[in-house]
Amino acid sequence: MATTTPLPPGIPPTHPAVVITAPRAPLAILHRPTEPPGPGEALVHVEWTSSTPLDLHQADGGLLIDPPHVAGSSFGGTVVALGPADASTAAAYRKLSVGDQVFGMAWEQPRERGFQTFITAPTYLMSKLPENITMQEAVTVSTNLVTVLHTLTKDLELEMRWPLSSSDTNANEEDKGDKDKEKKQWILVWGAASSVGQYALQVLKYGGYRNVIAVASKRHHQELLALGAAVCFDYGQEGVTDLIRNHVAAAAASSSDDDATIPLVLDCIGDLEGTLRPLTRLAEKGTKVAIMLPVIIKHATEDEPPEYEIDVTKVLKGEWKDGVVLRGVRTHFYTHDEFMKYHCQPDIVPALLEQGVVKPNKQRIVEGATLLERATNALRILRNRAQSGEKLVWRVDEKSAQELFPDLFVSKADPTKVETII
Ligand SMILES: NC(=O)c1ccc[n+]([C@@H]2O[C@H](COP(=O)([O-])OP(=O)(O)OC[C@H]3O[C@@H](n4cnc5c(N)ncnc54)[C@H](OP(=O)(O)O)[C@@H]3O)[C@@H](O)[C@H]2O)c1
Predict the structure, then answer these.
(1) Record's InterPro entries (predicted)?
(2) Closest atom of ligand 1 to CA, residue 56
(3) Strands lying side by side in the sheet with 187-190
(4) CATH number for 254
(5) Are 51 and 60 in contact (CB under 8 A)?
(6) Which of these, 162, 86, 68, 82, lies nearest to 128 by C-alpha position?
(7) Which residues pair with 190 in a beta bridge?
(8) Residue 46 and residue 76: Cα distance in Å, rounded?
(9) Which among 56, 131, 271, 363 is least surrounded, fewest beta carbons within 10 Å?
């Protein structure tokens, strides 16, 4: 029995990929083989991608990579071939057909990563594009919506049922009381205007969490209130941590609840001085603090390399109060949870978009005459920390699969012909 599906006619045997050749060296193009999809996999022609700070951490800091490293973790494009069916990926696989528009986050293997014109990846790393959003919008979503779903459930240990069941509304009075208390607890989202932060606010709102404190530049506050924040603070304001403390204390004093602590903190940035140090002033015994890794000790600049730390317990030792629980977020481990592995990208991400629970980040389109130029320009914007409340998106292949391989799409209207192709 064939273990892969041959490349369909017209699909090139090799394709260009953006690679990191060494820390802080210019990005380069490598021509890689286009790999036929194996069991449960799809071959996708990549049309859009988005850049994330991880690209910078890898390109300038060499973070957890072994160059040459094929770059990118987000992709959006068209399925041009499906591998043979595979029992373990059956549900995700069955949702897809040749010609479908898909998007997602994939990072593990060079063949899966988004800064190349074809990827071959497991279908459980793919979401089918809902009709109400464009591909340009969709590529802003997966990396950080998956991050938020993983962090809230794994690192902050919040219960997020999927799908929301009627038991939520039929709970007995005692359960309802406990749930209500849980939903009223303070959750601090520091860096709420970041891509991670915006998805966190929306998912928390969907989960019914009402007391979410957002910390971001003032210019984003109106929008963050609309996304689900109960109150916003400006991290540029002097004494911001005192203001937050006072707000929580005043709320406790005016209610029957005398607890003026913030039990859950989501640090969406992981910046030693910019976020962790102020958080040491707010976290109390028992507070769980989920920190986006890596901790940035020193930012990359045009002249100097960055410094990072992966172990959150090694920074600001002795400055956290006793009993604060620090969690370093590693989204790439989300597939260790079987349910998340098979449902997060195929089911949950597209449903949240389709139902309008989550809206994509604003997009800033990065221009450039070539694939390499667009990747390089995006990296420069990240290095200058010039993105604010937006996601950098850019074209991988400027032509769509429909334009490049029209013969493949004739089959969409004729299912018998699909059989001959895949
Ligand atoms: N380990 C993991 O699993 C994981 C997963 C996802 C992301 N991350 C990391 O998380 C970080 C954020 O990722 P992202 O894609 O969300 O970034 P992003 O959207 O590019 O972040 C830009 C935003 O950061 C905000 N910001 C910068 N410094 C801040 C500070 N001191 N306080 C509050 N806000 C601040 C800015 O807010 P203003 O516009 O308000 O100034 C800006 O809008 C990156 O380092 C990324 O690598 C880690």
Answers:
(1) ADH-like_N, ER, GroES-like_sf, NAD(P)-bd_dom_sf, Trans-enoyl_RdTase-like
(2) 47
(3) 231-233, 212-215, 187-190, 264-267, 288-292, 325-329
(4) 3.40.50.720
(5) no
(6) 82
(7) 215, 267
(8) 6
(9) 131
Same structural domain, 134 and 165: no
Pocket of ligand 1 (CB under 6 A): 52-54, 57, 144, 147, 190-191, 193-196, 215-217, 220, 235, 268-271, 274-275, 292-293, 329-331, 387-389
Q: Domain containing 327: what range?
A: 145-333
* Residue 279 and residue 217 in one domain: yes
Q: pLDDT tens digits, the chain, 422 residues: what are they?
A: 568 989 999 999 999 999 999 999 999 999 999 999 999 999 999 999 999 999 999 999 999 999 999 999 999 999 999 999 887 666 777 789 999 999 999 999 999 999 999 999 999 999 999 999 999 999 999 999 999 999 999 999 998 877 754 445 555 666 667 777 889 999 999 999 999 999 999 999 999 999 999 999 999 999 999 999 999 999 999 999 999 999 999 999 998 777 889 999 999 999 999 999 999 999 999 999 999 999 999 999 989 999 999 999 999 999 999 999 999 999 999 999 999 999 999 999 999 999 999 999 999 999 999 999 999 999 999 999 999 999 999 999 999 999 999 988 875 554 443 333 32
Residue with the smallest CA separation from ligand 1 atom 24 is 194
Other beta carbons within 10 angstroms of residue 66's beta carbon come to: 6
DSSP bridge partners of 246: none
For residue 243, list its beta bridge partners: none
Count the neighbouring beta carbons within 10 Å of the beta carbon of residue 243: 14
Same domain, 256 and 309: yes
Ligand 1 pocket test target in 145, 268, 273, 363 with most atoms within 8 Å of CB? 268
Measure 70 CA to ligand 1 centroid, in angstroms.
Answer: 23
Helix 142-150 and helix 195-206: axis angle, to 10°?
50
Kindly report the CATH number assigned to the domain that includes residue 112: 3.90.180.10
Backbone angles phi, psi at 357, to 5 degrees: -70, -40
- Cα of 356 from ligand 1 centre, angstroms: 23
Task: Say whether both 234 and 286 belong to one domain.
Answer: yes
Same domain, 65 and 77: yes
Of the candidates 242, 239, 218, 240, the one whose C-alpha atom is nearest the C-alpha of residue 229 is: 218
5 found inside a domain: no
If asked whether residues 81 and 151 sit together in one domain, one would say: no
